[in-house]
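Q: How would the structure tokens look for this protein?
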Amino acid sequence: MNFIVRGILILGLLIPSLMQAQESNLGNWLIYIGNIKLNEKWNLHHEIQYRNYDAIGDLEQLLLRTGLGYSFKENKRNILLGYGYISSRNYVGETTDKNTVNEHRIFQQYTSKQTFGKLNLSHRYRFEQRFVESDFKMRLRYFLGLKIPIKIKEKSNYYFSAYNEVFINTKSTLYDRNRLYGGVGYNINKGLRLEMGYMNQFFNNGNRDQVNLFCFYSF
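A: Here is the predicted structure in token form.
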């Protein structure tokens, strides 16, 4: 019953944002991130991201990503080799026509975790080799995230989450984009948590707002 009540509360918070998104340039990302622990050291990462130009129904991008990782240093360090498939639906100029762009991506990443009291920090360094149609690109990314538990009635199932991620190209214009995010999450159990937040992407020629809905599942 408590879970149902929480779901209703989350939907109540979400509906105004979705209504506003339908009348503005506010996008919506639905994100599932999973992790399968194969043994004490090896893990299988997988994720699905369904990105919309508006609340839902106007597809901007579908992203599928997976990878094999190896953990060390008491599981606070992880290296991973992965592959991603990205299908983008880009608007053509000021028209309502769309152009489909497919990308195959190979990436290598290193992540680390730090704890300072109740503050949890995570660092992720990612190097991408991108095959975008007939073009080849490379990109570097650095992600800095933090989590702080929020106590409600002596329980800390809720938490505050924030991150900043910068993207750097290896040629042409070096600066690609920057993502700044803040949100609130709830730990349902040890392996499952839900999170909702607001993200702003900063490009060379402007910025874009998104409402992000996450589901994290480890098993």
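DSSP finds one helix and eleven strands in the chain.

The chain has one domain: 2-218.

Upvote if useful.
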